């Protein structure tokens, strides 16, 4: 008995040590990324946080409004008020959520598969391209991921307390797509309780089941009413009306392919192919829905919401939106690897997988396709050449307002780098190129059509090109301008 207790204590101590080391490594990554500015969607968050901070929290809706609730921007602005306005504070802001993700992932991994190796789990998490990139960016997706994992775990462990309700409230207030995540948790909740539903008291049982989800729905609706009273529109600005449309049959199929492309991208195919094959084998053998294979079901429900809400609509498919599913896929993958009896072979497979994931960061597609700059670490060289571009424009006496730029290059440097000088390009109106004196074109922007790039190459004057593999920025001058 004493030997068993000693063994369990040793195992617990080892797992605690591995968890602490993992937290320390990710904390170091956060600290080392302290000079990386607000980037991609975080550029919008930076703009919002700046305005909230400068207005002394007197307003939360501004002219840059894209419909996204201002919770995370307010959180950043509040931290700036307490600790000072800096990029370091912005990056450290994600640390509580990052630690929460590690602990929640450990908790559910050990519950779904008690024999899982935490060393392998955290090693694959460290090499996961999209997760690592979001950590480097200080992205609010970490907050979304934490609250979703907490909510899903609360359902699994049947601990739906006040913190569970709070996590449901946080999700839609962090981002509009957070509301779809609440539905994902709700679907899993219904599945988990389906066998316990009493047919005679079905309505009472269902009402009790759905009540926690009505609270975030009510609060979110209050936000929409307030937002409409200020802006005159609810969810999506008219400039993004196309995102609300249902897909045609062709786009329906194309979105299905896009979703799996994003899942398999950056080397993740090495994880997902065996997971899908093994899941299909279990389904064929009618063992998929057994308790010992629940990790596959858990993974499926983390993906279900995405198919329900994004498959049929024209909303853009993004790697980051699948971050939760990408992380959870590691658990069933390790279950499969653990079936290999040869210990050396298991270590080789994990090592090889880490190598594939690392080099997956640098996969490049033709310019007309999205390269997931906000989901792989190949974005890092961009900031060096962006500074070179800004210096060139300033030294040549070019007014930045005369320069048209696409997302994400059009954010003010006072919002992204927190510079004191408001250096900002104009938002490029591509309907009429000729009205611009200068245009900045880069492969960091996924919105230039091939014919637009060809027009710039053939008919405009290339003033300068800045390169740092795999990123380039080109500054074009209108041949008809002075």
Notes on the structure:
This protein is mostly helical. The protein has 2 domains: 2-32 and 94-360, no CATH class; 381-477. The protein contains 20 helices and 5 strands. Helix 1 (2-32) packs antiparallel against helix 5, helix 9 runs antiparallel to helix 10 and helix 10 (178-193) packs across helix 14. The N and C termini lie far apart (88 Å). The model has no long low-confidence stretch (mean pLDDT 88).
In brief:
Helix content is about 60%, strand content about 5%. The chain is mostly helical. The protein has a 5-stranded mixed β-sheet with strand order 2-1-3-5-4.
Write the layout of secondary structure elements.
Layout lengths: L1 H31 L8 H14 L16 H13 L3 H6 L2 H18 L5 H10 L1 H9 L3 H16 L5 H13 L3 H16 L8 H30 L17 H16 L4 H16 L9 H18 L11 H6 L1 H8 L5 H18 L21 H14 L7 E3 L7 H4 L9 E2 L10 E5 L7 H10 L1 E8 L2 E7 L5
Parallel strand pairs: 1-2, 1-3
Antiparallel strand pairs: 3-5, 4-5
Helix pairs in contact: 1-5, 1-6, 2-3, 5-8, 6-17, 8-9, 8-10, 9-10, 9-11, 10-11, 10-14, 13-16
Key attributes of the depicted protein:
482 residues; mainly alpha; 2 domains; five-stranded mixed β-sheet; 20 helices; 5 strands; 5% strand
Whole-angstrom Rg: 24 Å
Gap between N and C termini:
88 Å
Largest sheet: 5 strands, mixed
Helix proportion: 55-70%
Give the low-confidence spans.
none
Q: How many domain modules?
A: 2
Task: Determine the mean pLDDT.
Answer: 88
- What order do the SSEs take from the amino end to the carboxyl end, as H and E? HHHHHHHHHHHHHHHHHHEHEEHEE
Please report which band the strand proportion falls in: under 5%, 5-15%, 15-25%, 25-35%, 35-45% or over 45%.
5-15%
Oligomeric state of the chains in view: single chain
Instruction: Name the shape in a single word.
Output: globular
